[in-house]
Each structure stands twice: as structure tokens, then as C-alpha cells.
Amino acid sequence: MFDAHLHIFDPRFPLAENQGYLPDPFTIADYRKRMSRFDVGGGAVVSGSFQGTDQTYLKSALAELGEGWVGVTALDPDATDEEIIELDRIGVRALRFNVKRAAADITAMTLQALRAHDLVGWHVEVYIDGNMLTSMQPVISKLPVFSIDHLGMSEEGLPYLLDLVDRGARVKATGFGRVHMKVVETLRRIHAVNPEALMFGTDLPGTRAGRPFQDSDVDLICDVVGTDMFKVLEDNARAFYRLPARDRAIQADPTPTLPIHRTEQPTLPLRRDELPKLEPADTIPFPAIE
Questions:
Q1: CA–CA distance, 178 with 150 (Å, rounded to integer)
Q2: Given a cut of 70, is residue 278 above it in pLDDT?
Q3: pTM value?
Q4: Among candidate residues 149, 66, 51, the one with its CA nearest the CA of residue 102
Q5: Rounded to the nearest 5°, which phi and psi values hold at 14?
Q6: Is 256 left (phi over 0), alpha (psi -120 to 50) or beta?
Q7: Burial class for 142, CB neighbours closer than 10 Å (0-12, 13-18, 19+)
């Protein structure tokens, strides 16, 4: 699988309170331990509000995680073209618009996002409550490629979210413990509009969520999307982050079902004229039922 949304809070690097809250450490070692039962072949490390525009933690995390891992970051408004190109070189693939938890100059962020897209092909990931989606329409309409975090967060914005999906937006199937909506129904409706849209992520460590990621969330997704589970669990996100598709060779069955070898000649059909003739006395009538 590809984890399209996780956070790393490494105490070796700067962290700042957001709305009076500071997260507990959650290192790469913690993440690997939590996900040890899953075959995670890559993922997207997303900068949280606690990290501001610091890039040091992200550079360290991507270097440690290696191939198949990408970054989603927030940039200083004065970031140069050279800084963006360098971040792209080490694996950063997107900008994050944290509209829900961080005050920002949306106009400046949009201009920066357009510049980053022109320079290196970055997309934008929008963290916003669904009831604010329509108010962001003037901004969203200018973004060439973007995704919406955590299913859009709330039921109110679902009709507009589905319209965005129909026009090419991607949606992260993440944060089930922090949304205010019917998760199964929302997943089903998004997937029906565009099977390429949903991208699985754990949202670990689940800071400030009602509940963090549970292993059963994967089962829930698979139940909803059925045979498209590989798309949602990995393929859609790898394509979105411009990573090569994963070679998923079909494994040979170690205990295949073997044919039964016949030791006798099979029964051959008889022609009608070869059937034995019955004498009239051989026909036994059924007794009448009163």
C-alpha cells in the first residue's frame, strides 16, 4: 500500500504550538512500528501546522525513508525558485493549503502554488472543512491540480466536493476519526463519480482526531471499493505523486488444486436406439390417490 497522508513529529526539529496545542513526538521509528503488519511501499509525509514552513524535518525524513516516499510542505512566502527546485529534487511533490488550522494569505499562496506548478509540476493539497469549500471556489478554480484532505471533513460540502471530483479533484480517504459524515456512503459516492479519485492514508498519528487510524479502516475501504482496492490503497496515489506504478506480479498458488486422474474409462453416452427395451409388464403403475 501507499500511505498518502502521514505526519512525522521529530523532537530534534522545531515544533510550534497551534491553537495552544503541541503534539507528542511521533518519529519514523514510531510510524514503522505502528504499521509493521502492513506492506507499506511508500507514502506522503505531510507538514502539519506545528511545523510551519520549516523544511529541515522534511529533508531528514525523506532522506531516511528513501525511495517511494514524497513530501507535502508549506513554503515561506518569500521562497525562491531555486528553493522550490531543490525541494522537488529531494522528493517534495506538493504544497499544502492548511485553511482549517492556519491563518494565511490565500492570494499569495495561490500565486506561489501556480509558480511551483509551472516550475516543477507540484499540485496543491487543501485542508478545509467542507462547509467552507464553496467559499474557496475562486481559489480552487485557479489550481490546475489539487486534492482535498479527509473526505472534505463534513457532510455540508459533499455536493460541491462531488462536483470537484467530477472535474478531476482527488480526495484523501483519511482521518475517518475526525470527519463529521457517513464515511461509507461518502466513500461510495466519491468512488462512483471517479474510481481514480480516492487515495488511502492513515493520517497517523491522528493528532486532535476523535480517534486515530485503525487497521479496520483498511477493511472498510476494501469493502466499499471491491475490486478497485489496489487503486485506492496504492495506485491512484502513486500516479498523483508522479511515482512509477508498482509492479504487482500475480503470485503462483503454492497449493494449487490438482485434477483428479481417472483410473477407469469415462462413461460414454448411449444412442437412443441402443437403450434397453422394457417389456409392458415391467411398467408398474402408481396407485391412485383418493
A1: 8
A2: no
A3: 0.84
A4: 51
A5: -60, 135
A6: beta
A7: middle
